[in-house]
Q: What sequence folds into this?
């Protein structure tokens, strides 16, 4: 038998402390009520497996049984403290226990890395799976519905629509999607693509353009959005990141949420700039395939720039559309290898162009 | 009869809570949320273990595995409910779906509160003595149904009475060994406190808000008492409006300048403040409290309450 220590014992029957004697060995803790050890009196034995220790203030508390509420306490500076703690700590081999023994900085770092990893995984997997699951045929029928609801309030230019449709067919814009163009009567210098194959062109932009190859560049750019499934990609992206942001914000609110949301907005903008320049590039490749000089893309952009109110370049990252100057630069660079190539004029496109004008 | 005075002390530190929360976040993330019950048990054990009353800490004897069973039951129950609602909405029965959702939730909530109180108090131990909740779930159900209906019919005004009746019912059924809590707050006074608080806050451009919070807190605390036979203990709050102003202001500054990282420290200093401002005085001798409650393990109510995201009401 080892040394006997005096402790405060709480028997789980009545609240007050009772004086008791305690000793411990390799197997567990033994306790006897009273102030003097009596070998013939009852001894309560508790194996370490059932026990846990906790420090509150300058006292230590040893809980003796998970099913009942008895425990004993003693001053944290008692001579046997370390020995008893060592016996009890050996029991906590759990993963959580070993994490808790790490320092706060490492834990914080782990959280940051983990969140970064989860964010990256979700932002990659959700759009990837979504693009696999949603077939082009589904996209075409959804796009048709979107087109019907968007076009309802517009005035369609039937004659120009027919001509432009012929123009688009000559260019062979898409393998996977039926490209259907619609000319809408409007002064706005604008054109947009709807997922699944519809391209809407405003008469304002046709009026602003000077040649058939600019129109080809415009259609090439819009068709690239359709072929690249850009709308679907950005919807899936915002769905994925929105999901994560809402999970995080459920716990953390206030200032943090403002930071996260703004960062997310900037990322979306960056993504849309990437999409625009990739559509420019695919559009120019289409021009080359159709024997049209890719510099037409640059001229188209110049035209659009002249027709939009100027925005200082420093603010370009705030716009939903990318900086035109950057795109012009990119288009110029793309055209460099074709500087000395000659592209024959395309009489079919030119005659359709005259009909449009 | 001897006259005693007791106070509560919270000895937790923000740093330790921060570490616990980081470990909980790591484990909950890598287990896709399944670790949540263990994380909750660890947090509760930390808070209880650092709350000291009459030199003895409280103990939360609940475990992650007990709560995990309830967690799964609650998860399946709510998954079934949301599944049914989504099915109805997809089949163009939006209104039926939404009605089903609200009705089932209103019906579930009393049982969730009941389960939550049973489990939480059965697992709360001080000085070896268990707390306990002995309310009847059907009585609570009736009270909640009446309260919800009248609150809707009176456009929210009855809410004050509902809230106080609920609190009274719940707290009057809480036992602490062979002593028993009681609460005597009533709806009329509570409504008046809120009306007064609201208008004075508007008139003082928000400044009175802190005194309004103080009034509400004091109303919760000062109406609470503990009785054991002929002995009683009154619970008192000593917090002032100025204290609340300082607390909330500093919390806000801490939160903003650390982008939320100081949250554990904010929680700790708030808990410390609330405990520090509660005193008990009266004739109960706590060392004489006797154990009356048996072991109880079912945590389903606790977990449903968690999923529905309403905190433990006290």
A:
């Amino acid at each position: 038998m080892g040394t006997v220590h005096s402790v405060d014992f709480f028997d789980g029957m009545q609240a007050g402390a009772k004086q008791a004697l305690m000793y411990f060995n390799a197997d567990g803790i033994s306790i006897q009520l009273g102030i003097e050890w009596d070998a013939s009196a009852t001894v309560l034995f508790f194996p370490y497996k059932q026990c846990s220790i906790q420090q509150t203030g300058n006292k230590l508390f040893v809980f003796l049984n998970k099913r009942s509420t008895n425990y004993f306490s003693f001053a944290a500076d008692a001579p046997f403290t370390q020995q008893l703690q060592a016996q009890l700590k050996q029991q906590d081999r759990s993963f959580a226990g070993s994490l808790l023994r790490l320092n706060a900085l490492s834990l914080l770092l782990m959280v940051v890395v983990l969140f970064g990893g989860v964010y990256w995984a979700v932002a990659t997997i959700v759009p990837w799976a979504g693009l696999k699951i949603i077939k082009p045929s589904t996209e075409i029928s959804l796009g048709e519905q979107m087109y019907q609801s968007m076009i309802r309030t517009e005035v369609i230019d039937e004659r120009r629509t027919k001509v432009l449709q012929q123009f688009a067919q000559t260019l062979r814009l898409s393998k996977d999607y039926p490209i259907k163009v619609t000319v809408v009567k409007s002064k706005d210098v604008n054109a947009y693509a709807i997922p699944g194959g519809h391209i809407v062109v405003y008469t304002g932009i046709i009026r602003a353009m000077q040649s058939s190859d600019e129109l080809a560049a415009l259609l090439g750019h819009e068709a690239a959005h359709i072929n690249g499934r850009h709308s679907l990609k950005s919807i899936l992206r915002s769905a994925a990141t929105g999901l994560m942001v809402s999970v995080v914000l459920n716990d953390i609110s206030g200032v943090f949420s403002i930071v996260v949301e703004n960062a997310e907005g900037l990322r979306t903008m960056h993504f849309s700039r990437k999409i625009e320049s990739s559509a420019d590039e695919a559009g120019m490749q289409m021009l080359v395939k159709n024997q049209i000089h890719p510099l037409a893309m640059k001229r188209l952009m110049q035209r659009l720039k002249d027709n939009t109110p100027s925005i200082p370049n420093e603010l370009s990252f705030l716009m939903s559309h990318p900086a035109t100057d950057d795109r012009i630069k990119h288009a110029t660079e793309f055209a460099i290898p074709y500087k000395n190539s000659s592209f024959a004029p395309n009489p079919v496109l030119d005659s359709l162009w005259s009909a449009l004008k | 009869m001897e006259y005693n005075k007791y106070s509560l002390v919270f000895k937790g530190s923000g740093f330790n809570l921060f570490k616990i929360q980081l470990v909980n976040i790591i484990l909950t993330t890598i287990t896709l949320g399944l670790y949540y019950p263990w994380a909750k048990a660890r947090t509760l054990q930390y808070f209880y273990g650092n709350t000291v009353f009459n030199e003895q800490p409280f103990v939360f004897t609940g475990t992650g595995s007990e709560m995990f069973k309830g967690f799964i039951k609650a998860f399946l129950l709510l998954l079934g409910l949301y599944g049914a609602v989504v099915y109805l909405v997809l089949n163009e029965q939006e209104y039926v779906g939404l009605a089903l959702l609200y009705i089932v939730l209103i019906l579930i909530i009393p049982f969730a509160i009941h389960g939550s109180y049973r489990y939480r108090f059965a697992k709360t131990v001080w000085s070896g003595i268990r707390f306990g909740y002995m309310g009847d779930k059907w009585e609570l159900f009736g009270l909640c149904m009446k309260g919800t209906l009248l609150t809707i019919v009176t456009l929210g005004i009855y809410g004050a009475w509902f809230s106080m009746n609920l609190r009274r019912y719940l707290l009057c059924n809480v036992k602490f060994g062979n002593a028993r809590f009681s609460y005597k707050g009533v709806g009329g006074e509570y409504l008046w406190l809120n009306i007064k608080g609201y208008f004075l806050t508007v008139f003082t451009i928000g400044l009175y808000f802190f005194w309004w919070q103080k009034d509400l807190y004091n109303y919760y605390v000062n109406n609470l008492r503990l009785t054991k036979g002929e002995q009683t203990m009154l619970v008192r709050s000593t917090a002032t409006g100025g204290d609340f102003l300082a607390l909330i202001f500093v919390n806000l500054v801490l939160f903003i300048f650390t982008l939320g990282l100081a949250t554990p420290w904010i929680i700790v200093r708030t808990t410390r403040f609330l405990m520090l401002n509660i005193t008990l005085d009266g004739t109960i001798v706590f060392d004489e409290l006797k154990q009356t409650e048996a072991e109880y393990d079912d945590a389903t109510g606790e977990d449903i309450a968690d999923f529905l995201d309403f905190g433990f009401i006290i």
Remarks:
- Residues 311-320 of chain A have pLDDT under 50 and may be disordered.
- Chain A has twelve helices and ten strands.
